[in-house]
Amino acid sequence: MIVTNMRGIALPEGWDRRPIASFSRAVATGLTTDALDVNGTTPLFDAQGQIGNTNSKPIDAPYVTIIKDGAGVGKVRILPKNSTFLGTMNGLITDTTVDLKYFYYVLAQSSFFLENITTIPHIYFRDYSKEKILVPPRARQSKIVNFLDLETAKIDHLISKQRQLIDLVKARETARRNQVLDAVSGTPVRLKWLLSPSRTRAAGSEEVLSVYRDYGVIRKDSRADNFNRTPEDVSNYLLVRPGDLVVNKMKAWQGSLGVSEFHGIVSGDYEVLRPLNAEVDLQFLHLLLRSRRYVNEYAIRSKGIRPSQWRLYWQELSEIEIPLPPISTQKTVVESVGGTKGNHALLDTCERMIELLRERRSALVTAAVTGQIEV
């Protein structure tokens, strides 16, 4: 279903309600990264930014792109005239009656989502071209754009400052953690003597878990930025118990692993490892295996031609040796690293501030492009 928040809004005086197709045309390229050419003259963009140049035909006007498939679906941006883009996006060019930047703001605050029978979201021009948006007179559009450019820039600046603070706190915390964990010593023990693979299947009613590089094992629904959709059939998913080490085999080289605090299930492409030895503190194991000391080791032991294909299998992971000091020392290490909990509270505050600023930005844009505030 396609959803926009333009329906049911009273029409301000002098405004019109128009289908998107009545003032815009769609542009598609079908290009892939194979189109990159070091001698090309046309800038080529993907969903993140310019990735190089190409000799493909450029778009003859400024345009808005919308990600039409997969992660980030519906994300919009404005790209310049005489550039082009990958086929994972659609381009939209407006006629002279609608300011392109105004149209961008409308799309940026609208919620477009098409859910089909697959697990990957899609959104195509044919699905939203008949949707109507509110269109004020051209001069009013320009005023709204100027107002939003100024006000959103202020909010974006505040968000940037919060992100800088988050990065600083994380860098200091990481440095402190690595300093402590790099100094750990003890009897060398291979992981195969501490852990054993578990292939216990899900019953189907358990909560779905995921593994994040920054957090370890989390409840999947606790993150709004997780675009990997869970299939209806989870019979191949693996059961996870509190205390199990869960490894994302495809991203272990990035540090995507951790000891779970939760009971739930994970994709069958993960590795679930159950502890065998009571002489290891699970929180100590969690911290040590996620430290740079071992993440670098995972990269070396992963199999695959290129990073996007790398996988770390238990056969290789099991041979890694870790220092195992007495259990009392392990607990001391955990307490030392856990001394950064005050930082976690600060990070939570910063994240909440960013969330509130984003909500403020979205509400401001919505109010402006629906005529709810005078600009």
From TrEMBL:
InterPro entries: Restrct_endonuc_typeI_TRD (IPR000055), Restrct_endonuc_typeI_TRD_sf (IPR044946), Type-I_RS_S_subunit (IPR052021). The keyword DNA-binding applies. SUPFAM superfamilies: DNA methylase specificity domain. GO terms for biological process: DNA restriction-modification system. Residues 32-152 form the Type I restriction modification DNA specificity domain. GO terms for molecular function: DNA binding; endonuclease activity. Keywords: DNA-binding, Endonuclease, Hydrolase, Nuclease, Restriction system. It holds the Pfam family Methylase_S. Belongs to the type-I restriction system S methylase family. PANTHER family: TYPE I RESTRICTION ENZYME MJAVIII SPECIFICITY SUBUNIT, TYPE-1 RESTRICTION ENZYME ECOKI SPECIFICITY PROTEIN. This is Restriction endonuclease subunit S. It comes from Corynebacterium diphtheriae.
